[in-house]
Design brief:
Elements: H1 6-15, H2 18-25, H3 29-43, E1 48-50, E2 55-57, H4 59-83, E3 91-97, H5 99-116, E4 120-126, E5 140-144, E6 152-160, E7 162-166, H6 168-174, E8 195-200, E9 203-208, H7 218-226, E10 232-235, H8 236-245, E11 249-251, E12 260-267, H9 274-287
Helix pairs in contact: 1-2, 1-3, 1-4, 2-3, 5-9
């Protein structure tokens, strides 16, 4: 039959293992291997590269996966409709979120969500990389800032504000910048980018900055700013408590860019199942 081997193929593609796929599906490894072999014979193409350590998709396999993932999603959606998951959400959700924002805001909300909906199973990969949701089998992603991938559907969950700030001790010693060009005379604490974003006279400005340190850690940059090592630009969830206490002071506020979006995104060809819709609505309600 045309469907034979499809579920096994998708499972192996996503787990990158015949053994893990067999465990996931509750069948023997030999049966998974046999179904994949029959599928490759029927298609007259090789779908996987197999070594003793790893199983990866061939180019033809990646193309086939993109289509098959949608078929499996449609089958799952049909089963969900029959079992009426709108009443009792259950099943797996695979999602990704940025590391720091995910740790501080998303994971605690997921814990609250799962304490209410106990039959939902959530797997989260915290990563600052823009992962391919379709190819890697993700149902949902949390992304920050401007969205550039037009192939994804998106719902805004909230907003974040970026602040430029420094400690009173740094400002007492070096003075406060009053224009964007003044930043060139200051020690700027760098993250992964070598420029900061501003808005001046209605136009976006990217100002190249430099300093004596560069961290890929927002918490490390906050600590450096608190210790008077320079000026930093970071989202509100890193600095808001320090701004409230006066340990950090906002600078160049008149040049701040508009707040950025916090988004839930998902592939267009994925059926937004009741459990995912419920989770997105839950996140939206609590993040706002």
């Amino acid at each position: 039959m045309a469907w034979d081997g499809i579920s096994e193929f998708v499972s192996v593609a996503e787990t990158q293992s015949f053994t893990k796929a067999s465990q996931q599906m509750g069948i023997s490894t030999a049966q998974v291997s046999r179904q994949i072999s029959e599928l490759e014979k029927r298609l007259k193409t090789r779908l996987f590269y197999r070594t003793t350590r790893k199983v990866t998709l061939t180019e033809e396999g990646r193309l086939f996966y993109r289509h098959c993932r949608g078929l499996v999603d449609s089958l799952e959606a049909a089963e969900q409709a029959i079992t009426n998951l709108q009443v009792k959400p259950q099943g797996k959700i695979k999602m990704t979120a940025p590391v720091t924002y995910g740790e501080r805001h998303i994971l605690p909300l997921l814990n609250d969500f799962m304490s209410v909906y106990e039959e939902v199973q959530i797997t989260v990969n915290l990563s600052n990389d823009k992962l391919d949701l379709l190819e890697q089998g993700y149902d949902l992603a949390i992304r920050l800032g401007k969205l550039v991938d037009s192939t994804l559907m998106a719902k805004m969950l909230g907003q974040r504000t970026n602040y430029v700030c420094a400690s009173p001790s740094y400002l007492a010693q070096h003075g406060s910048p009053v224009s964007l060009s003044d930043l060139h005379n200051h020690s700027c604490l760098l993250g992964t980018l070598d420029y900061w974003r501003f808005k001046e006279k209605g136009k976006d400005r990217h100002i190249r900055v430099s300093g004596t340190l560069r961290y890929n850690s927002g918490f490390g940059l906050v600590d450096a700013a608190l210790k008077g090592l320079g000026i930093v630009q970071l989202p509100h969830y890193y600095v808001e408590t320090h701004l409230q206490s006066g340990d950090l002071v906002v600078l160049l506020d008149e040049f701040s860019e508009p707040d950025e979006g916090i988004w839930a995104v998902y592939p267009q060809n994925r059926h937004l199942s009741p459990k995912i819709r419920l989770l997105v609505d839950y996140l939206s309600e609590h993040l706002k």
